[in-house]
Design goal:
The protein has eight helices and ten strands. Helix 3 runs parallel beside helix 5 and helix 4 crosses helix 5. 30% of the residues lie in helices and 25% in strands. Strand 7, helix 6 and strand 8 form a beta-alpha-beta unit. The protein has a six-stranded mixed β-sheet, sandwiched between helices. A four-stranded antiparallel β-sheet has the order 2-1-4-5, covered by helices on one side. The protein is of the alpha/beta class. It binds adenosine-5'-diphosphate and magnesium ion. Adenosine-5'-diphosphate binds next to strand 2 and helix 1.
Length: 265
């Protein structure tokens, strides 16, 4: 089959057309990231071409230094590429200014970090409300949505606690609730289970799997095969390039809701 050059124009399809399942959420074209540290120039990403469709559940794998975080930071609008295009819901975001990027980040992207990045001395509920404050959601609505999200992640009994009173797995669940605060289409997680024991890691992956089932597009970075095994597509990076990109035909099945909720008491 011959690919016509004109095909690339498809990226301009607006977000709210029908057929959401097969619609492109992310498209990267010849994406390059060079870190210029003065004396040294490091190639973080080397001409990445990648499409992720709405509703996918993707793992990004690869050795340390292969470019996973560089990719995630660009996907999450925390950093900008040096060269190339990044279309998010059809909008070219590669060249946006920092304040425009933060607006996109606030509305369209939930980001979960390995180290949770919660605000200490602030209650769990208030942590979840932070992105809604930036989005100017009214206080009563903020509270209602925060409590609903905390219920979804199984933490309704911990809403008044501060992060340091919670286990690692619980903190990460708060971070996930916070990431979902503005109902973003895209959830990104950079080694979200990197600081967790195996039981808590399973709970976090089951939570992502349920979010995926509810329609959220989820991209998770991990080194671990058993974590990637929950996802439906596994992309492996090496030296800033895509080494392989394959479907996972048999994702790890998710146990019942009870698995998450039993730890509350
Ligand atoms: N802020 C930075 N300044 C300079 N080099 C960086 C920076 N961040 C990452 N790099 C380099 O870019 C490459 C990819 O790094 P990274 O994306 O963090 O890899 P991974 O997340 O897969 O471990 C590595 O060679 C790393 O040293
Ligand atoms: Mg990394």
């Amino acid at each position: 089959m011959i690919r016509l050059p004109g095909k690339r124009k498809e990226t301009a399809v607006p977000a709210d057309t029908g057929g959401r399942e097969s619609e492109e959420l992310i498209r990267l074209e010849n994406l390059v990231k060079i870190y210029d540290t003065g004396a040294l120039r490091v190639l973080g990403l080397n001409k990445i071409n990648l499409t992720i469709r709405r509703g996918e559940f993707v793992a990004i794998m690869g050795h340390s230094g292969s470019g996973k975080s560089t990719l995630m930071n660009i996907l999450g609008c925390l950093d900008r590429p040096t060269l190339g295009q990044y279309y998010l819901e059809g909008q070219d975001v590669a060249g946006l200014k920092p304040d425009e990027l933060s607006a996109i980040r606030n509305r369209k992207i939930g980001f979960v970090f390995q180290s949770f990045n919660l605000i200490s001395r602030m209650s769990v509920e208030k942590n979840v409300e932070v992105p809604m404050t930036y989005a100017r959601v009214k206080p009563a609505e903020r509270k209602r949505r925060a409590l609903r999200l905390l219920e979804q992640v199984g933490l309704l009994s911990r809403v008044s606690h501060e992060p340091n009173e919670l286990s690692g797995g619980q903190r990460q669940r708060v971070a996930i609730a916070r990431a979902l605060a503005n109902d973003p289409p895209l959830l990104l997680a950079d080694e979200p289970t990197g600081n967790l024991d195996s039981q808590a890691s399973v709970e976090i992956m089951e939570l992502f799997a349920r979010l995926h089932e509810s329609g959220v597009t989820v991209v998770v970075v991990t080194h671990e095969d058993n974590i990637a095994a929950y996802t439906h597509r596994i992309i492996t990076f090496q030296d800033g390039r895509i080494l392989s990109d394959r479907q996972n035909e048999h994702p790890t099945p998710v146990s019942s809701q009870q698995g998450l909720l039993h730890r509350l008491t």
